[in-house]
Design a protein that fits this description.
The complex is a heterodimer. By secondary structure, chain A is an alpha/beta fold. Chain A is about 35% helix and about 30% strand. Chain A is built from eight helices and ten strands. In chain A, the strands form two sheets. Chain A has a six-stranded mixed beta sheet with strand order 6-7-8-3-9-10. A four-stranded antiparallel beta sheet of chain A has the order 2-1-4-5. The N and C termini of chain A lie far apart (about 40 Å). Chain B contains 31 helices and twelve strands. Classes of the chains: A alpha/beta, B alpha+beta.
Chain lengths: ~250, ~700
């Protein structure tokens, strides 16, 4: 079995007062190991909901979500946390670094949670990652002393430090200008190629989308199809979807 | 470990990030400081007071009759002395208690109070003249007249007569002054006539012809015109003096000697001796000198100004004490010292006692070197026999004569009114005064019953015994049975008193009678609570009928003072930490709500709930430990400084609480540990709710953009 993620007929409903909102309506898809996959779609299409289910931070109302061969519905809260810690890396739209920790400590944090490595091994591992993202000279800096792009690179390093099978990135470039956004996507792509880590990232920016091996297109909580990046970009442009946020920091 | 380091680091950085943490920290710092310093001071005070109470009368444990109406209160209570039941089987109790492995000694006791009177100055002078005249006739009442050569005795009689005549001159002068300001009808012609009579040379020329009649006239007509006699309340502890002196090793004899073993006798508390029995002018000079040594200034201190004013106004006590020769000597000395031509002693004394901050030292020295040797500084002197009158238990007035062997004080408590005003009396005299039958008296009473055929009539059978059939009450005159002349001549009585003074009582006799309470001295005072429980159990088991209480309980209200302050401290600390808890709770709640995305992120990337819980709690504990630690440090520093410098007793009462002139506070490790525990409880307690709320933050919160 080569699929790292397997989703079958997944429905996710939210209760908004008296109204039940269906965020996902019978989504099925498979993500193979080593893929650099983009989930695309307009706002409200269900991209983040789908990533939450894959990232085990939320559970499906119906259907099956399997991550690394484990049915997430059958896992306890503690087991889900362990699965996230050991199998999944997260990159957030707002970087989500711990402001009171240094760059080094932010990256080291998941390793501390794992408790598998000793001090020197952890240090070597963290510094190696920081070198890969080009921030080894900023190890002692606090997040507030870094630019947006640098912060997101720290977040990438943090997501990869535990050698996860899967990295989820929710709109990783949304808070960055396009040039920096491209650098981050390039970084993710190169790490995907170097380490073979599976990347799934959501975006509605066709410039970001074009870096993916494949694009899952979502609309109204349904998968419209799986396309190549080229087709997906063309499709997006034909639908007149908004270009990337070019000036957002 | 690394994870904890990380959590502490997060906590430390969050600590510095929020200004409210500084407010919380300041509260924790102050609360801890207060607890460490005030707690330490109270502990030190408690220990010092324990030394004072235990070392001056109470011992470690006090026992008293379980049937007592009141609780034992060694220093008196609001309603006067407690009503204690009599401990009638003391030997059995003592034996039982001393069988306990931690009991070193049991010292029998009884506290009571009585009145003593000092005759007025003229009375005292006339008494001396009377004794000297009796000694001349061969009846020697006072030991100091024994063995005096006739010539020496004659010289003393002459001096004593001159002294009385000098007093009469003073009274005459007083009377003339009074006549100048009073209306004629306010002046008693009998008084004037009496003064005229005794100031005439004729009266004194006839004195030798009828000395006893002349003395009687002086005693009846002149002495009452001086109203400086004093009625003094004296508080005393009746005890086995030998055991007391052995058990309370802080006790030291200041003047005179110990009471010989097994004998009756009285030891006056030195402070009482100084305050109440010393010549007032001299005492005020002493107090002025002491106050100056403490830095107080006569120029600015109202109390000291009052002392000077009283000394200047009250010179009569001194003037009346001096005969004409001594008066002349004192005048010469004072004229020389004051460089004055004034001839009147009273005026010279008024000028002499006009003491200032500058001249006090010189005048104090002059007084004790030049004037004091001519004066009787104390109303009661070592060697005197003191007549002590007290209300017995039955309500009648009883009196005993006891010889004053000396004065005593407790080391370190010399100036404490609480420890320095209770005098010591032998147990036999105490029992006489208190109205309990001593073995002597019981035997005397039995003898009387046998001789007179008296029958004991009980309350229950009184009616039948007195008025029942078959019992005829016959009144018999007993004239002639009592030899009044013999009984009231005073010779027999004096012989009996002399016998009592000299008699040596055995331990069995001393312990055999009634006592009111007893001090139990422990071998290991650290085991006080345990021993106390065991002694009470022993009383129940052996039916001793006693109650054992700690020194603290036995000292009544006094013992509760520290407890009262401790409760105040705890209330203050509880209030401060209560406020801190509320603020910490709110602050941590706010901090948690502000950090939901960080917490959500941590949860998303794999932090378990327990880690989040630990993170919030560690943050709070770090806050508490940092500021609480600072509070402890500052508090310990202050205590250490106080320990090296000491706190001077601000007044005489504080001497008792400080167990000496200075309190050297000790830093208590127990207080530091308790403070630490309180800080941990407060911080953990107040953070528990925010911490639980933090654990409920969903990892989903990480995915929501923080706009």
């Amino acid at each position: 079995m080569n699929a790292i993620v397997s989703i079958r007929e997944v429905v996710k409903e939210y209760q908004l007062g008296q109204t039940t909102v269906q965020a996902l309506r019978g989504v099925s898809l498979e993500v193979l190991k080593g893929e650099f996959l983009s989930i695309a779609g307009p706002s409200g299409s269900g991209k983040t909901t789908l990533l939450n289910l894959i990232g085990c931070v939320d559970t499906a109302t119906r259907g099956v979500v399997e991550v690394a061969g484990k049915d997430t519905a059958k896992l306890t809260e503690r087991e889900l946390t362990d699965l996230r810690l050991n199998t999944i890396g997260f990159i957030f739209q707002s970087f989500n670094l711990v402001s009171v920790l240094t760059v080094f400590q932010n990256v080291e944090f998941p390793l501390l949670l794992q408790g598998k490595l000793g001090g020197s091994e952890r240090k070597a591992k963290v510094m190696q990652l920081l070198e890969q993202v080009g921030l080894h000279t900023h190890a002692k800096h606090r997040p507030s002393e870094l630019s947006g792009g640098q912060r997101q690179r720290v977040a990438v390093a943090r997501a990869l430090v535990t050698d996860p099978l899967l990295v989820l990135a929710d709109e990783p470039t949304a808070n960055l200008d396009s040039a920096t956004g491209n650098q981050i996507i390039d970084l993710m792509k190169s790490l995907n190629q170097q380490k073979g880590t599976t990347f799934i990232f959501s975006t509605h920016d066709h410039k970001v989308m074009q870096h993916a091996n494949a694009v899952i297109r979502l609309a109204d909580g349904k998968v419209l199809g799986r396309e190549s990046a080229k087709d997906a970009v063309a499709h997006a442009l034909s639908l007149g979807e908004a270009p990337a946020n070019e000036v957002r920091a | 470990m690394s994870r904890l380091t990380m959590l502490v680091q997060i906590a430390w950085r969050n600590l510095l990030a929020s200004p409210i943490n500084l407010i919380i920290g300041a509260l924790i710092l102050f609360g801890t400081f207060l607890f460490v310093v005030v707690g330490g001071l109270l502990d030190s005070l408690n220990a010092a007071m324990a030394r004072s109470v235990i070392g001056s009368a109470a011992g470690h444990v006090q026992i008293y009759s379980a049937k007592s109406k009141d609780e034992l209160s060694l220093y008196g209570s609001m309603g006067g002395d407690p009503d204690l039941g009599a401990v009638t089987e003391f030997p059995r109790i003592k034996e039982a208690l001393e069988g306990h492995p931690n009991v070193k000694e049991v010292v029998p006791m009884g506290v009571s109070g009585a009145l003593i009177t000092s005759g007025n100055t003229v009375d005292v002078a006339l008494e001396e003249l009377r004794n000297l005249l009796k000694a001349k006739d061969g009846v020697v009442d006072r030991p100091e007249y024994k063995g005096l050569a006739p010539a020496e005795l004659e010289t003393r009689i002459t001096a004593s007569r001159r002294h009385v005549r000098q007093m009469i001159k003073v009274l005459e002068a007083d009377q003339k002054k009074a006549a100048a300001i009073l209306q004629d009808k306010a002046i008693d012609p009998e008084v004037v006539a009496a003064l005229q009579k005794v100031s005439s040379d004729d009266f004194w020329a006839g004195f030798d012809t009828d000395p006893w009649g002349s003395l009687e006239f002086l005693e009846n007509k002149i002495a009452p015109q001086v109203t400086d006699s004093q009625l003094l309340f004296i508080r005393y502890l009746g005890t086995d003096l030998d055991r007391f002196q052995q058990s309370f090793d802080r006790m030291q004899i200041v003047d005179g000697t110990r009471v010989p073993k097994g004998q009756r006798g009285f030891l006056v508390a030195k402070l009482f001796y100084e305050d109440q029995l010393k010549l007032k002018s001299a005492r005020r000079l002493d107090k002025l000198k002491d106050a100056r040594a403490l830095g107080r200034l006569i120029a600015t201190d109202d109390e000291l100004k009052r002392f000077v004013k009283e000394n200047k106004a009250q010179t009569r006590d001194i003037v009346l004490q001096l005969d004409d020769l001594k008066t002349s000597e004192a005048v010469t000395k004072l004229q020389g010292f004051l460089k004055s031509d004034e001839k009147d002693l009273s005026a010279l004394l008024t000028a002499f006692f006009d003491t200032t901050d500058e001249n006090l030292e010189a005048r104090h020295t002059f007084f004790y070197e030049q004037l004091a040797p001519m004066l009787q500084l104390y109303k009661v002197r070592v060697g005197d026999t003191l007549t002590i009158k007290a209300f017995s238990r039955a309500g009648a007035i009883s009196a005993v004569n006891v010889k004053v062997y000396g004065t005593f004080s407790f080391t370190g408590l010399e100036k404490s009114p609480l420890a320095g005003t209770t005098s010591l009396m032998d147990l036999m005299s105490f029992r006489d005064l208190y109205g309990y039958l001593t073995a002597d008296k019981a035997e005397e009473l039995a003898q009387l019953k046998r001789e007179t055929g008296a029958k004991q009539v009980t309350r229950e059978s009184a009616e039948d015994d007195l008025f029942g059939e078959g019992n005829t009450v016959v009144a018999e005159a007993t004239a002639g049975v009592i030899d009044e002349k013999k009984e009231f001549s005073g010779v027999g009585r004096r012989l009996r008193e002399d016998d009592l003074v000299r008699r040596v009582y055995s331990d069995a006799e001393i312990n055999g009678g009634v006592v009111l309470h007893a001090a139990v001295i422990l071998k290991d005072p650290a085991l006080l609570s345990k021993t106390l429980g065991e002694l009470n159990a022993l009383s129940t088991e052996k039916n001793l009928g006693i109650k054992a209480v700690s020194w603290q309980q036995a000292s009544g209200l006094l013992g509760q003072v520290i407890l009262f302050f401790r409760v105040l401290l705890l209330m203050a600390v509880a209030f401060i930490f209560g406020v801190a808890m509320v603020i910490i709770n709110n602050a941590m709640m706010m901090a948690t709500l502000q950090r939901t995305q960080v917490i959500g992120t941590m949860r998303a990337i794999g932090a378990q709930r327990t880690l989040v819980l630990s993170m919030v709690l560690v943050e709070s504990v770090v806050l508490g430990l940092v500021f609480g630690g600072l509070g402890m440090l500052v508090g310990s520093g202050l205590m250490s400084w106080l320990h090296s410098h000491g706190i001077a007793a601000p007044n005489d009462v504080a001497y008792f609480f400080f167990s000496g002139p200075r309190l050297l506070p000790e830093l208590s490790t127990a207080n530091l540990i308790i403070a630490l525990v309180i800080i941990l409880l407060v911080t953990l307690g107040s953070t528990m709710l925010p911490a639980i709320i933090a654990t409920r933050v969903s990892p989903l919160r990480a995915m929501q953009a923080d706009e």
